[in-house]
């Protein structure tokens, strides 16, 4: 099927007039929303640079859209549009399917059928890859096809390549990511302007940074899907969405952020994947990050992924996590990679199949520092009682502050623990619930740095 | 020569007992200093992970050292050591030569001969690649061999892969790097502790962060070589060392850093590669960077490379720029890449040959903001005279402060310009030299952000 290998090696066939005969590579697009539009812009705008790299023109041959009659922000030949995705998938001249339509079950069906037909896949679909990545990659391997998904995590940051290739030599011990721009925008605004969650969410919606139904972002599900992908690649084991414990930012208050800053922390929604002794744990939660940690100063809609490896030590990768052109940059870089493989006849042969058995850390082994804010009866002996409970479950404390509450007759106790196991912390908190002097467990956050 | 292709596809040959027969890949090492030691540690320590990825064991077969009798920090089989690099290069079973010995002319000869013999090269040698990269890569292409050099720039940060693959789709407009850890350590200490250049240099030498002869680092030459490599990859044109204008940090004073901080800047030795309208310019110089720019908070021996692309926007890559294991991480990742190509039979076929004609910006087109500190006669009309000269050469000013000097009877004038061409700035400074009221042009720095 692929006759390009020779021409790639500089021995291109000529037509009878002596002109070079280089077949263009034809790409089919599923979806022409924000990212799809960016893909068309880059493929057309950077055509000269792209074809210089891959050795032939890249043509977007067919585009599946919901409505072919809709007005578009870019000029697209109407003849290329279709409302039937199958027409793109079954198109005989198309070698690369770019999936930027989103969706899960139906989209999976399209992609599996495309693979069945020997077409290579580039997708920006984190939901699909987090939920069905292993099935899709298995089918790709069977059919010797590429499936690339750089754009599915952290938009324009080439973090997937970095984990697969840049750190192939190392053993990753930690991946810590701000991988959701919407929630980082909200937390940054709350921190910088002292605004409430509700106010900033409304602003983010007005700016188009948050969806009308923001659940997937603010409840941490979007971040969890991305962390499942990063965990799989970083730890070379099959991390599933159900392995990720998730807590969103909806209950983060102005007060929490004020306390965080006063203690020298910034509040961030962090995805954290940890490995110790070949046991792993992956979670997403609002986290107080020490201000001097490189990830603490990642603000607004920007994303960043901090990676720690046994050999390489601390690294961090920063950039736009979403948006038309940044995300399309990753999609088109994947198209370039597929085409280079096509020309060399090696598609599907470099796939990384997770080869390690997955062992999740038990609650006894999951360690973190913690911030706890308690409202308690303002009377003698309460602090002693509370610190005694921490001692009982062997949680040692880094700092304890008791102060009157500004708004009511209770006292506040602010505690930061040293590293403690999740099991112990759960026991402490359970014990607190039955303790009469504690009026309210106001907040509990993970602490990093 | 390579019979692995089949086994890589899962159809490995068996011996008569039915056991899988996987030939190990043999690697030859030139040099066993800091990085070489790290390479041995990682190849041995991560052998299981590495062979899972490439499908066969990786064996370091032969190591060229200066003195085979020297005590080593790691246990190495003496039989593998040789004092004759040619023995490694001519070894018939070795497919991959890892060059971590440094040096230029003699080393180039070794590498060209190894390529001539069809061996693939992994090198950490920025000097060699900056000076002779195009010759070496041309020979590699001729012989269909890989030459990978991720470790030559920014140690453990996979910035070369990122520029070649991650941003293959984009047009890079700017690369701005802290690519020399020694000078960043010195400037950070000067900034944080108010110490002098000489004091901190002595400390850096004591800590092993600076060489006994620190010239190559502190004069900016090391950074310039790395920027030539990054410029070549980012702009896809052949940037040579002579295209990089260089100024080191030896004349940076405590006073300069104090002024920088007072104005909201950090002093950094920045490599800056800019592209506008397909004209490029590359320089290395101490630069005042606005404190809120992501690169301003990169401290100590850490490196960072900030990349701006037309589509992807702002990105930054941060990590250890030197050191045994971080640098070895990149070397071994390159070994993995070579071996994967070996197994697929595609070595040397993905090489990026710079395909754009190089056009350097003229001094009229090189734009930057500038900081100028002048010592002037403390009398009426001086400021007017000076600002008149800026106006004459069409350099507009962002801020001007005149104040008495604490230590002598002169006045100080501190000027920050808006973007101005290098040509105009040179004329202004030349004019200043002939102006009687200016006692001294105390400092001139580029300003970013």
From TrEMBL, chains A, B:
Its EC number is 1.1.1.3. The active site is at residue 226. NADP(+) binds at residues 30-37. It holds the Pfam family NAD_binding_3. Its cofactor is a metal cation. It catalyses: L-homoserine + NADP(+) = L-aspartate 4-semialdehyde + NADPH + H(+). Keywords: Amino-acid biosynthesis, Metal-binding, Methionine biosynthesis, NAD, NADP, Oxidoreductase, Sodium, Threonine biosynthesis. One of its GO terms (molecular function) is NADP binding. One of its GO terms (biological process) is threonine biosynthetic process. L-homoserine binds at residue 211. NADPH binds at residue 126. Pathway: Amino-acid biosynthesis; L-threonine biosynthesis; L-threonine from L-aspartate: step 3/5; Amino-acid biosynthesis; L-methionine biosynthesis via de novo pathway; L-homoserine from L-aspartate: step 3/3. Residues 371-449 form the ACT domain. InterPro entries: ACT-like_dom_sf, ACT_dom, Asp/hSer_DH_NAD-bd, HDH, HDH_cat, HDH_CS, NAD(P)-bd_dom_sf. It comes from the Bacteria. NCBIfam families: PRK06349.1 (NF004976). Belongs to the homoserine dehydrogenase family. This is Homoserine dehydrogenase.
């Amino acid at each position: 099927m692929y006759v390009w290998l020779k021409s790639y090696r500089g021995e291109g066939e000529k037509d009878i007039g002596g002109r070079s005969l280089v077949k263009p590579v034809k790409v089919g697009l599923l979806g022409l929303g924000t990212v799809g539009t960016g893909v068309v812009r880059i493929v057309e705008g950077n055509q000269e640079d792209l074809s210089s790299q891959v050795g032939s023109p890249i043509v977007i041959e067919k585009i599946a859209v919901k409505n072919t009659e809709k007005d578009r922000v870019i000029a697209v030949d109407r003849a290329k549009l279709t409302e039937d995705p199958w027409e793109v998938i079954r198109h005989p001249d198309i070698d690369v399917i770019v999936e930027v339509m989103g969706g899960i079950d139906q989209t999976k069906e399209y992609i599996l059928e495309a693979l069945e037909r020997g077409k290579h896949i580039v997708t920006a679909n984190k939901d699909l890859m987090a939920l069905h990545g292993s099935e899709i990659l298995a089918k790709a391997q069977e059919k010797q096809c590429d499936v690339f998904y750089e754009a599915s995590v952290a938009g324009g940051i080439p973090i997937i390549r970095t984990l697969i290739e840049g750190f192939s030599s190392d053993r990753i011990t930690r991946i810590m990511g701000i991988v959701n721009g919407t929630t980082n925008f909200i937390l940054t605004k709350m921190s910088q302007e002292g605004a409430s969650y509700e106010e900033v969410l409304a602003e983010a919606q007005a700016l188009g940074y948050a969806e009308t139904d923001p659940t997937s972002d603010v409840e941490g599900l979007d971040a969890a899907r991305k962390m499942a992908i990063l965990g799989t690649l970083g730890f070379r084991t099959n991390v599933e969405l159900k392995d990720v414990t998730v807590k969103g930012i909806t209950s983060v208050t102005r007060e929490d952020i004020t306390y965080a800053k006063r203690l020298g922390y910034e509040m961030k929604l962090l995805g954290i994947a940890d490995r110790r002794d070949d046991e792993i744990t992956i979670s997403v939660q609002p986290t107080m990050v020490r201000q001097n940690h490189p990830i603490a100063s990642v603000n607004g809609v920007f994303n960043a992924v901090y990676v720690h490896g046994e050999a390489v030590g601390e690294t961090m990768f920063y950039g736009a996590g979403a948006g038309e052109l940044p995300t399309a940059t990753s999609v088109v870089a994947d198209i370039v990679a597929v085409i280079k493989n096509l020309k060399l006849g090696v598609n599907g042969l470099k796939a990384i199949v997770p080869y390690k058995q997955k062992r999740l850390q038990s609650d006894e082994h999951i360690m973190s520092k913690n911030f706890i804010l308690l409202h308690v009866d303002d009377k003698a002996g309460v602090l002693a009682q509370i610190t005694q409970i921490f001692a009982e479950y062997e949680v040692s404390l880094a700092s304890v502050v008791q102060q009157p509450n500004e708004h009511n007759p209770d006292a506040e106790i602010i505690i930061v623990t040293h590293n403690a196991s999740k099991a112990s912390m759960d026991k402490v908190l359970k014990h607190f619930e039955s303790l009469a002097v504690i009026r309210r467990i106001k907040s509990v956050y993970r602490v990093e740095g």
